[in-house]
Amino acid sequence: xxxxSRLIRNQDKFRFIVESPAIYGSHADYSxxxxxxxxxxxxxRLTEIEKADINLGLIYAxxxxxxxxxxxxxxxxxxxxxxSKPADILSSTVSYLRGSICxxxxxxxxxxxxxxxxxxxxxxxxxxxxxxxxVAKALxxxxxxxxxxxxxxxTLQEAIATFHRYGPxxxxxxxxxxxxxxxKKMCHYLDAELLLKTAVSIAKRTNCLLHELNAYNNLAIVGxxxxxxxxxxxxxxxEALQKIVVGIDDGDPSESHTRVAIACxxxxxxxxIMTRRFDVARARLEALQRRYELDRYFLRESALLHLYLGxxxxxxxxxxxxxxxxxxxxxxxGADVRDGDIMSSILRHQASxxxxxxxxxxxxxxxxxxxxxxxxxxxxxxxxxxxRILGEVHAQIxxxxxxxxxxxxxxxxxxxxxxxxxLMQSCVVFGSFLADRREPDAELYLxxxxxxxxxxxxxxxxxxxxxxxxxxxxxxxxxxxxxxxLAKAEKxxxxxxxxxxRHLRRFIVKANSDLxxxxxxxxxxxxxxxxxxxxxxxxxxxxxxxxKTELAYQVAQNVGADSLFLAKRKGRGYSVPLTYNIxxxxxxxxxxRLDRQSNQPFFGIRTDPxxxxxxxxxxxxxxxxxxxxxxxxxxxxxxEQTPSLGQLERLFASAEAMERVADQNIxxxxxxxxxxxxxxxxxxxxxxxxxxxxxxxxxxxxxxxIRLAERVSSSDTTVLLEGDTGVGKELFARAIHKNSPRRxxxxxxxxSGGMPLGLLESQLFGHIKGAFTDAVRDRIGLIEDAQGGxxxxxxxxxxxxxxxxxxxxxxxxxxFRRLGENQLGIADVRVISxxxxxxxxxxxxxxxxxxxxxxxxxxKLRVPALRFRKRDIExxxxxxxxxxxxxxxxxxxxxxxxxxxxxxLELYNWPGNVRELQNEILRIVSLIGxxxxxxxxxxxxxxxxxxxxxxxxxxLLERSVECYERRLILDALSKNDWNRxxxxxxxxxxxxxxxxxxxxxxxxxxxxxxxxxxx
Length: 1015
Description:
CATH class of the domain at 3-208: Mainly Alpha
Largest sheet: 5 strands, antiparallel
CATH architecture of the domain at 3-208: Alpha Horseshoe
Shape: elongated
Number of helices: 46
CATH topology of the domain at 3-208: Serine Threonine Protein Phosphatase 5, Tetratricopeptide repeat
Strand content: 5-15%
Number of strands: 16
Strand order of the largest sheet: 2-1-5-4-3
Helix content: 55-70%
CATH superfamily of the domain at 3-208: Tetratricopeptide repeat domain
Structural class: alpha/beta
């Protein structure tokens, strides 16, 4: 019994026709099936109702394959409806087909809902599962195109559940396809992909090429939206299927098949655009436009084609033509496109063109329009991309805070829906914006963009991202990383097509020139820093061992070196006072080989640099420092075959600085250079009390102040020392006296605010017997006692008005009078005063004499507070620790401090300044017991509370913490001869953690082993 005999016997003939794969098969199968049905209609054995059922099936079949207008089908349905009763199954089927035709052909979705919604609720309680599933499927599609996505979701799920339970499998797969389209519109791309893959497998099982093509077509759209890595394979598969399916219509394609064919080709062209094969894509699009006459018959597809042409011209920097194509796409967009994702994409690209052309107001207007449409249709992908362009608009008009917010929202929105391609572009733009602002998060977004570029295999954006990473690294002064990023960019750049190379070339050139300029500027700054460090070393203001590895690290970073060392001939061997990222043994081996390769002795003779090209493609540069002392600085560069002139200049400057450091250290300690590397003691050297060398500092402002005070010391000018309590004003006063011609005479210190007026006057000027009640004998005052020396008046701002007058007389002509005596005395003293008040404000308020203020402040020196000298905190802390150890007769005891405690000390604002720090160290040492490690919990509660509040308010750690951590690691590496395992054990860290910290802090993470590559 063939299918047609079974068709006659089947009671539900409409369902039987819908289930038939012949409707979706080849043209021959379809035509044969339709012809047999038409012949059956002529049979006398069929009733009118049965004929009507078959006619409904023919209308359902022709709906997909015919070019007849929709009104033809609707008139046929009117004829069939006359045979049916209002509530019977035939009437319900007619209503379903009416609604389905309104959805698929007329695209009048509101009318479709009006027809199908009553039928849907009427069929729900019945057992007409098949028809109920069809109605739910058609109604869900109408809801979806009206933008009622949540309602569509529920309705389509009911259709899927119905067909999954009651069949047929073919319609189950087709419902999955429709549900995947809904998920695509909701930007749930992973769900859509899984649904479509299931639909593909069902279409293959039921041998429905048309449904398989639709599923692959939708997979291509999902890949297009999400930027999935497998997007290309879907477009290729859809294109291959399209060539097969075109043969279904045997040269006379229906409108629906033609639209499917055009859609397949457009998706393939989109794939070419995303992979930046613009010439091929443009030629194919123009051929497609001519072949199907899109501008005349297919307005939706024509709008999409002109959108793609506009995007090609936008990406190839032909902005005028791009603008014209996008305007044409906007004009061609029909009613169904006007409120869809195609229209939002057109608006977004128009905004991008206007922005590139510099029309900011037009770009903003188009962007806002796109955002409103995307919100209305709930298109999160276009919304995220449009917000990115709005951020670019804000950045152009310098509204940086708004731009930052827009970029952040765009990246998060696109990341949430996993739209890889647009997310990559947002991350590149956001990273570039942050790099311009020198924000630390720039690298995070750019690295995310680079990851997506590698996943999608888009070399243009990989090159662009590497350039932006180089700019970000350059802004962070990580010049070695910047060079590496630019080298990668140039390598990828050579594989790009001509138009992309022409566009990116100027950015690569600019990035290289900017990097060179930054390196030069940094080298000048570093040179000044090195000079300052060397001056401080020479003056021995702080322990030399504390900064040696930091100095070597700075030199290596400044020239972009993987490793370096300072070598010197010593008898028949070699001495290595300074190293970075290389062991002393390896350094000596290199020095030995270099000396043997020279025709004349290399150390102490040559004055020109030597450059060795090693077997591994790297470069060893040897810089002679001083012919008399015989030092040579050997530097291993891995970035370039030949060092630049700027690098050589910086190496010469750095070599001189390092040589001075090494000489000062050896002279101070009387030890060999190799011992300098591994010396464990960091105890400060001691100096005569009162000398400027007793003022410990590495702060540039403090060093300038010391030099100014040194110049003032040689004169008798009055000096006014200003500054907060505890900053060391008396220390400066004693140093000025000690370096003055009066150094051999007395230095008398008086606290002007610490005693009553009468007693202070008596202390200053003296008294005779009987001058007041307790004056039982004559007494010489401190002024007279300091004859020929220096008087230091501390807290001079608290002096009474009466005493100010007497002090003014002393300063003007040196005259003074003892209490109770009429005879004037003459004093030859130098007056140095100090105050923690703003004396000028006290003068304006009438509380301090103006004439005395100018007398006292011939030279005014302001000592900065400790909170402005963060770099001095660790230095002073170690000095006080050494003092405490000496007081307790534990000179061999060495205290260490953990990272968090050091962080707290450096972040604290120190209202009591150096005196408070000294008392804090004294308190800690008194309570530390047997431990040699100062931990965070040992600090005062005020310091711990300050750190916790700082972290809560800012959420960021100060750079000083990073500097301290790096210095701690450098010191430990240097102490252990750059052995990573021993260093990790000493620091109490796993080796992998140490390597991770070294990488984060830009400390080299491996030995260079340069000597193995020497010839």
